[in-house]
Design a protein that fits this description.
Blueprint: H1 26-41, E1 46-48, E2 58-61, E3 70-80, E4 84-91, E5 94-104, E6 106-112, E7 118-124, H2 125-137, H3 152-161
Antiparallel strand pairs: 1-2, 2-3, 3-6, 4-5, 6-7
């Protein structure tokens, strides 16, 4: 395993669309291992491959919950709830900053795992936020593009209405 350099928000690669992974081989597995090591070293819960400079549709997530380490290859959101939620987000590519973002309360993601099997995972609450955030990276979108210009009190009021 090796630590990889995390690309920062002014790096143009973060605005590019990642390409589908055609074949899961030892090289892809090494990239995934490196991504986890890099994510953990930087105290993250999710990392998209583009954040380490490669335009591959790969995301790793570990929210230290019952799902453990997740590898999502060629992920796509196949269902999203109409119900929304607002949470604070940060990003390893945008260090030292955060902002409130509105996302679906529930999403279902279809992806390929490291063994080449198609999987489906439904996530709610903050995990749904994480999935949306990381999948946005694969299309060149940063959370900063979606930050709401609201006060903490306004956010709390909106969340209490739901």
């Amino acid at each position: 395993m090796a630590l990889r350099q995390i690309r920062l928000e002014n790096d143009p690669i973060l605005r590019r669309k990642s390409r589908e992974v055609e074949k899961i081989d030892d090289r892809i597995k090494q990239i995934v291992d490196d991504m986890f090591e890099t994510m953990y070293e930087n105290n993250g819960i999710g990392l998209a491959c583009v954040q380490v400079g490669m335009l591959k549709r790969i995301v790793v997530i570990d929210m230290q919950d019952e799902d453990g380490k997740m590898v999502l290859i060629n992920p796509k959101i196949v269902e999203r709830s109409d119900e929304k939620q607002i949470n604070v987000e940060g990003c390893l590519s945008v260090p030292g900053k955060n902002g409130y973002v509105e996302r679906p309360k529930t999403v279902t993601v279809e992806y390929t795992d490291l063994d080449g099997n198609i999987q489906r995972k439904t996530a709610t609450d903050y995990k749904a936020h994480c999935f949306c955030h990381e999948l946005d990276h694969l299309d060149g979108v940063l959370y900063t593009d979606k930050v709401l210009d609201l006060t903490d009190e306004e956010i709390e009021s909106l969340n209490n209405e739901k």
